[in-house]
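Feature request disguised as a bug: please show the residue count (368) next to Spermidine/putrescine import ATP-binding protein PotA in the output. Example input:
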Amino acid sequence: MENASIIQFVNVTKTFADDTIVLDNVSFEIERGKFYTLLGPSGCGKTTILRLIAGFIEPTSGEVYFDGKKINHLPANKRQVNTVFQDYALFPHLNVFENVAFGLRIKREKKSVIEAKVKEALSFVNLSGYENREISEMSGGQRQRVAIARAIVNEPKVILLDEPLSALDLKLRTQMQYELRELQRRLGITFIFVTHDQEEALAMSDEIFVINKGKIQQSGTPIDIYDEPINRFVADFIGESNIVKGKMIEDYLVEFAGKRFTCVDGGITPNEPVEIVIRPEDLEITKKGAGKLEVTVHSKLFRGVHYEMTCRDVEGNDWLVHTTRKVDVGDMIGLDFEPEAIHVMRFDESEEDFDRRMEQYTEEEANG
Ligand SMILES: Nc1ncnc2c1ncn2[C@@H]1O[C@H](COP(=O)(O)OP(=O)(O)OP(=O)(O)O)[C@@H](O)[C@H]1O
Ligand SMILES: [Mg+2]
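Example output, currently without the count:
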């Protein structure tokens, strides 16, 4: 029987010749038929993960599994994986048809089979009729589609996409995001997509792995990661955040900006220093004295649909607020928010520590 996971990394570490650790004890599972995104800043190890999956490099330690079988040493051409590279890596001297047909010709497929499969792949990416075009006569978005057709024609179980949209302008990029997501749904195969663009990751993925410095900081659905960032790196990297220092008084009670607030977090040692995240859209402007925080409007920028304001509280913390209300720089106003809007983070807590704390805390809750 097929198990749900198609790829599994178990304690994978990768170091290169000079002993710098590029991936540090990384473990994760990729399930069949989902759209995954590896998200993180330049140099964090995203491409290295793809290269380990594709078989271009081997792990220094740890295991890589595909379909339940260990594949650490399996050569790239024996893996049921195809890669779409950032620069597409198309063959400039071959036309569209031959670019897509390339892998099938290497496998010595019959002419009639090649014709039927290339035709189908091109129709999947809306390029029917472009068979005889030269690559040099194709636009950036069309080249992108040829590169995808070349990957799907081999019917791999997994497609790896390394920042495939970064060369496109914003409008085309947004269109291709929809197209890729739609294509993944229609094909029903696993996509592992790399980007350093957080909005792109949020818009496209079933699951996101947020990576920094060779470690997975957090994994989860876009909503999980946006709503419940587990550390400062994730909170800062995903969306816009207000992050201020505070202190946990006890379960459900936290102190910051010189006041105590009811919150929904627990399982943290009393009086432990913590960081507080509140998303700008969770802050509501009120009249002076009517909110939970008293602030002065420090700056204001018009962003087309809303104003983006920074407000300063008595302790000197800056609060980013989005509003359509008319307020002026120098105004004293109140800020209101729900207990659920307060996200309490321990300093540098890892995903495992966070999971362990949650488990323990909910058990204690259950036991009264
Ligand atoms: N063959 C190699 N030898 C030595 N160091 C390498 C090698 N390949 C990658 N690295 C280093 O490993 C780290 C991670 O590289 P990787 O290409 O995985 O980053 P990335 O997350 O894909 O970044 P980007 O967003 O810039 O593409 C970098 O510091 C890089 O310099
Ligand atoms: Mg890269």
